[in-house]
Amino acid sequence: MTATTTIPGLFPAPTKHAKLIAWVQQTAAMTQPDRVHWCDGSDAEWNALTAELVAGGTLKPLNPVKRPNSFFAASDPRDVARVESRTFICSEKEEDAGPTNNWLDPTEMRADLQDLFKGCMKGRTMYVVPFSMGPLGSKISQLGVEITDSAYVAISMRVMTRMGAGALKEIGDDGFFVPALHSVGMPLADGQADVAWPCNEIKYIVHFPESREIWSYGSGYGGNALLGKKCFALRIASVMARDEGWFAEHMLILKLTSPEGVVRYIAAAFPSACGKTNMAMLQPTLPGWKAETIGDDICWMRFGDDGRLYAINPEAGFFGVAPGTGIETNKNAVDSLHSNSVFTNVALTADGDVWWEGLTDTPPEGLTDWKGRPWSPESGEPAAHPNARFTVPAAQCPVIAPEWEDPKGVPISAILFGGRRASAVPLVTEAFDWAHGVFLASNVASEGTAAAENKIGELRRDPFAMLPFCGYNMGDYFDHWLKMGAKADASKLPRIYFVNWFRKDEKGKFVWPGYGENSRVLKWIFGRLEGEAAATDTAIGRVPSQESLDLSGLSLTQAQLDLLLTVDAAVWQEEAALIPPAYEKFGDHMPKALWAQYEALVSRLAQA
Ligand code: GTP
Ligand code: SPV
Ligand code: MN
């Protein structure tokens, strides 16, 4: 093994934290980088790293007049999304990972990983990236250090988290941090030229929940590589939340103000690429209503001393889906991206700017697609990859709420769950109570998207939109939700709703206009919270009575409205039949209270 004392940059370490220094030293000895760089998160560092990435061909600077300090990156075409089949929860007991996670014995996994990581950073710089999930110094924030051999990851972490010297200071001389080790898995031999997007066909995204560790190998992409995000803030944090009595969820957080000036905060969980970023930045079409963003992907919630549930967004940036993001659908996202942004797998315009399907109605002339080929509408493939993403500081969002970094968090009044459902699921359903809401959330299903390697359009069950992100047995996770609710003062709990913007007609067209028009559903929910809006009890929950939904100015036919709001008992009997096989997988871990909810649904349907 290389003597680490000779690796340039390793010493002097900018910390006295013995455990951190030892981990960095051991990792350097194992992975054998050419040099070490401790990230401080400064502008100078950003400038140096982006310049290096430009020189190496990973980044292209965008037109500095149109989009200052912004860059384009094209990934390896085999490294474009999360790899759920290669994501592992290596708890000591297989049972604790549960039937929905991949599991391997932690001792064997460690041995395999140590082999893979041996010498894997040769020829590269090893970046030590301290970061805070949540505002620096907040009691609900959590600290981590990512070691990575990717400068693209280091700069992305600076946008997505509070990264650098401030976080290192918070970790202090002996504070707790989550160690997160990442390598693209492509060591360079002496004199070997690098590629623009190094990665490896072999990929491992591994979590050791008991020791709160993350090891990621072979991918440079988003959720596989920016380890503060899904790996830490959801998979590891969900385990911490179970142990400590809080929630780590795949949710946006939205601030809604009524024309009367009443403020409500709403959290919403939809599966990947199912509308969280869009809803988080929604522009209400109803006059007088105002929506502001707190977070678009991850939400941590705890009960406050007043018995209410408070939420923070642990992230500092947005890693949002580009295709479909346009002036008509999400102007606030488009307007966030004026500078300081990284665009991955989008198309490039002739004048050095970015483009993707849905940004404008007609594509500009002279596009280059995400693979670097000249593109025209006749090319037969989209110009941007369907999971192309932008990385942008949250503070640049024109409707970011002033309190978005408040360490206390914001009190949540309603929690929405939903997915892409062409059939069966009404526009909005209110749960009868918390336990019924947990039941609805445990049965979220959605048509597959490009955010992970599943079949596009195929229905899959994705409880709580957390299927790929829960770091432990999901049966126990359901139980955690039930227990947390049972302990709380029911009158202060958020109300739970189930929404579906994706209902299609027989021609396969979306029936509901969606986007800003979703404010009509939010108005109804607001009215429910105020005790003003009417609802009709159905077998599956409470749906709006037709008059109680504000449809002024919308051109929906009666048949369309019926389709959106009717609960068809025969269709729901088929839906209900899908529940037992899904629940049985969890065996003894499945809470009895949810089986009771299932029985109650079946008997309500029999009477409907
Ligand atoms: P992740 O970042 O992967 O967790 O996804 P997300 O939930 O934030 O998804 P996002 O908001 O980026 O939405 C992805 C896709 O859903 C885009 O193609 C949007 O255009 C589409 N979408 C969002 N909201 C609506 C809506 O109300 N109606 C319809 N029809 N499509 C929508
Ligand atoms: C998702 O897939 O839900 C995302 C993108 O938000 S990633 O960070 O890659 O997980
Ligand atoms: Mn997500």
TrEMBL record:
Its cofactor is Mn(2+). GO terms for biological process: cellular response to glucose stimulus; gluconeogenesis; glycerol biosynthetic process from pyruvate; oxaloacetate metabolic process; propionate catabolic process; response to lipid; response to starvation. Coiled coil: none annotated. GO terms for molecular function: GTP binding; manganese ion binding; phosphoenolpyruvate carboxykinase (GTP) activity. It catalyses: oxaloacetate + GTP = phosphoenolpyruvate + GDP + CO2. InterPro entries: PEP_carboxykin_GTP_CS (IPR018091), PEP_carboxykinase_C (IPR013035), PEP_carboxykinase_GTP (IPR008209), PEP_carboxykinase_GTP_C (IPR035077), PEP_carboxykinase_GTP_N (IPR035078), PEP_carboxykinase_N (IPR008210). Keywords: Cytoplasm, Decarboxylase, Gluconeogenesis, GTP-binding, Lyase, Manganese, Metal-binding, Nucleotide-binding. PANTHER family: PHOSPHOENOLPYRUVATE CARBOXYKINASE, PHOSPHOENOLPYRUVATE CARBOXYKINASE [GTP]-RELATED. Monomer. Catalyzes the conversion of oxaloacetate (OAA) to phosphoenolpyruvate (PEP), the rate-limiting step in the metabolic pathway that produces glucose from lactate and other precursors derived from the citric acid cycle. This is Phosphoenolpyruvate carboxykinase [GTP]. It comes from Phenylobacterium glaciei.
